[in-house]
Amino acid sequence: MAQESADTHFGFREVPLGDKQAMVDDVFRSVAHRYDLMNDLMSAGVHRAWKAAMITALNPPRSETPFTLLDLAGGTGDIAFRAAEAAGTGFRAIVCDINAEMLHVGRERATARHLEDRVSFVDGNAERLSFADKTFDACTIAFGIRNVPRIHVALREIYRVLKPGGRFLCLEFSSVDMPGLDKLYELYSFNIIPELGRMVTGDAESYRYLVESIRKFPRPNAFADMMREAGFARAKWDVMSGGIVALHSGWRL
Ligand SMILES: C[S@@+](CC[C@H](N)C(=O)[O-])C[C@H]1O[C@@H](n2cnc3c(N)ncnc32)[C@H](O)[C@@H]1O
Q1: Helices 17-31 and 204-216, interaxial angle, to 10°?
Q2: How confident is the model over 3-32, as pLDDT tens digits?
Q3: According to the 3-state scheme, what is the secondary structure of 94-112?
Q4: What is the pTM (predicted TM-score) of this model?
Q5: Distance 180 CA to ligand 1 centre (A)
Q6: Nearest C-alpha to atom 26 of ligand 1 is from which residue?
């Protein structure tokens, strides 16, 4: 087995692999109470369209047919709620996230939406899932995988907990490939977003990390290769908004 590198990236900084998760946890602990508002402000609401595209691809049954979704790194529950609202009565979701503050906000939102019977929240690390093999019909992860220190380990775990025939969908920021838009996006990301973060959450550094971590995330073809290495079949992706985000898909067959 290849030796695992002892270092990784936290944004643009090289940090010991063992330190990254605690640093990521500090970021989301700091921004949890304003996380959803910031998503709307940063993306001018467009994150809603990206998430809607993920739910369209997931296509949960609109019937009584049992269907169990794992929404990994699900934070405040956005994806699970959208899936529940699109699905039939057989639908259940578990939002699994490592951050207690994000989960706390998620539970409050579930109650406000009367979804607490269909969406539950579990504290857990994507690298060591506490679920049995072949538990879920589908797994989603939105804007979460780039925060996980050992992505290949999390991908193997996702594969393990999916039922044969189960689908994995991953929404993540990608690389803008439209001339003109790339420069604008760069300027916006590195200048406006941290400042917006400072004004809304009092924490510019966390948003600087989030922007930098986007640049460090593998290109779609490289991520698709990682999915294949973890066992996924039919790994493919679609880009949206000129490459700002990519929706990856793979199956456990
Ligand atoms: C950018 S938020 C995404 C939240 C939600 N999926 C959404 O789209 O709004 C990233 C989430 O990943 C979670 N996370 C980071 N590392 C994790 C890990 N190792 N296991 C599980 N969740 C993790 C964070 O706590 C945070 O809630």
Answers
A1: 130
A2: 455 889 888 888 889 889 999 999 999 999
A3: EEEECCHHHHHHHHHHHHH
A4: 0.95
A5: 31
A6: 75
Which pLDDT belongs to residue 5? Answer: 59
Kindly give the number of the ligand 1 atom that is closest to the alpha carbon of 71: 6
Helix (H) or strand (E) holding 31, with range, is: helix 17-31
CA angle 216, 4, 249 (to 5 degrees): 50
CB atoms within 10 A of CB 61: 15
Q: What is Dmax (Cα atoms) for the chain?
A: 49
- Nearest CA owner, ligand 1 atom 15: 147
Query: Residue 102's pLDDT is what?
Result: 97
Tokens of 43: 């993306």
Q: Does residue 134 come out as left (phi exceeding 0), alpha (psi in the -120 to 50 range) or beta?
A: left
For residue 25, the ligand 1 atom closest to its alpha carbon is 25
Give 163-183 pLDDT, tens digit per residue. 999 999 999 999 998 889 999
What residue's CA is closest to ligand 1, atom 9?
A: 78
Output the CA 26–ligand 1 centroid distance in Å.
12
Which pLDDT score is estimated for 16?
84
- Which residue carries 């994000």 as its tokens? 102
pLDDT of residue 4: 54
Which residue ranges have their beta carbon within 6 Å of ligand 1?
21, 24, 28, 73-75, 78-79, 97-99, 102, 125-127, 142-144, 147-148
